Structures are given as C-alpha cells and as structure tokens.
Amino acid sequence: MRGPQLFCLNPDRQENFPPDFMRRMAIDPASLQLGEPDSSIRPQGLTCRAKFWNPNNYWPSAPADMQLTLTEYADPGCQQTYFLLINPQVDMLVEDELCERMP
To answer: What is the pTM (predicted TM-score) of this model?
Structure first.
C-alpha cells in the first residue's frame, strides 16, 4: 500500500471497551502517536494510539480520558474509521480526498 496510512478501531482489541461507545465517542486529534509494532495484520505492521472522550462523561474542556489503540485498515475486525471531533475547525485537519465531491 502506498500513500498515507489509514488506521481504524477494532473494539475486540481494546481492554474493557463498551461497544455502545463506538459511534458516540470523540477523538482528540492532538493525541495521535505511533503505537507498538503489530505483525498480526501484516509483517512490520503499525498501530496508532489516540485519546478519546468517553461519551458518558463528555466535557469538552476536560482532557480526553480513554486511550485506545488503532490498527491498520486491513485489520478484518475494524469497525470504525471516522470519528467525531469536538472542534471540527481545528487547524491540524486536512480534507479527506476519499470524500471529495465530483464535479
């Protein structure tokens, strides 16, 4: 695969993760960092760590309180690739070319 690497959330790889959080939790984009190597998906595979706000304890001025591991998109157990944002105007984001509108 060439180009940017895409990561997603496999709920089965998280400790004590309630499945009903999947569509309601918001990611802290500033918390993204390289995780542990993971060869379960492909040789020399990668993971990414990110913090999320718990949807049952949501307060945007408080720090994100859940740290989860994201795996490469090829992970067959992945269930979510796009996440809610508290502030969609944050300047570190870029447009997703997969969602571009065709003329």
So the answer is: 0.82
